[in-house]
DNA sequence: CCGTATCCATAGGGATACTG
DNA sequence: CAGTATCCCTATGGATACGG
């Protein structure tokens, strides 16, 4: 019991669900202004396994954020590109970036202070 | 091996790391305009276990987003409240909320379409 | 009342090997 | 090249019981 009904109640969590997966921000970040092939993307993201990359790309496609472009050729040639829906995320990305620029030091200090008070 | 260096490269991921944990958005959402006690918070969030709530609260304290207020009394009385740093997240929350309002239907449609094309 | 400690099941995710 | 399939280990997270 106490099974979650499924939908998180607040819209914040809903939106995060779409783009806040483990590798998604970096994938979107890299696709923001360029098409990339699978391997290029894997190198660009750095540290992601094939399995994870494929999976996250599938979810991004499902949610309409990324489009898969298959060129018929041998050897196969596939490119991924951001859809127009991604453009609507830009204000969010902008705010996230700005927040980091403005507040990262504050967070660092809080963490140091916390660490000092908590002999883990 | 192949241990990740630690820091994700893009600031987006950095910022998300601070507040995008599984229960954090809902915790912050509830603390936004009121102090709450541990049990109140647990009920408010809904579905979160004691263990998870305690853990997420610890992280939020560590990152300076939440303050723990301990009243000395028997039985113990503890309250959690948002710090001023949380205020700086509001533009982000605002954008996230707005995005959901504007684009949730689009995402739904994309998902339906994707499901139709992918007999999973 | 406010948590921590412990146990345990499940899902996440890496490495590797293989296919169209 | 662009993935899937498999194996396997670890981290996550729920339930329960206990301590300050």
Automatic annotation (TrEMBL), chains A, B:
SUPFAM superfamilies: Winged helix' DNA-binding domain. CDD domains: HTH_ARSR. Residues 10-108 form the HTH hxlR-type domain. Keywords: DNA-binding, Transcription, Transcription regulation. InterPro entries: ArsR-like_HTH, HTH_HxlR, WH-like_DNA-bd_sf, WH_DNA-bd_sf. Pfam families: HxlR. The keyword Ligase does not apply. The keyword DNA-binding applies. Transmembrane segments: none annotated. GO terms for biological process: regulation of DNA-templated transcription. Coiled coil: none annotated. PROSITE patterns: HTH_HXLR. GO terms for molecular function: DNA binding. This is DNA-binding HxlR family transcriptional regulator. It comes from Algisphaera agarilytica.
């Amino acid at each position: 019991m106490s099974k979650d009904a499924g939908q998180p109640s607040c819209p914040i969590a809903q939106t995060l669900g779409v783009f806040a997966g483990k590798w998604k921000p970096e994938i979107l970040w890299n696709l923001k202004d360029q098409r990339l092939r699978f391997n290029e993307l894997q190198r660009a993201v750095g540290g992601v396994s094939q399995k994870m990359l494929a999976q996250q790309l599938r979810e991004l496609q499902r949610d309409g954020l990324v489009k898969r472009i298959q060129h018929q050729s041998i050897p196969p040639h596939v490119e991924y590109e951001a859809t127009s829906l991604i453009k609507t995320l830009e204000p969010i990305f902008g705010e996230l970036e700005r927040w980091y620029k403005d507040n990262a030091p504050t967070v660092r200090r809080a963490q140091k202070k916390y660490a000092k008070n908590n002999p883990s």
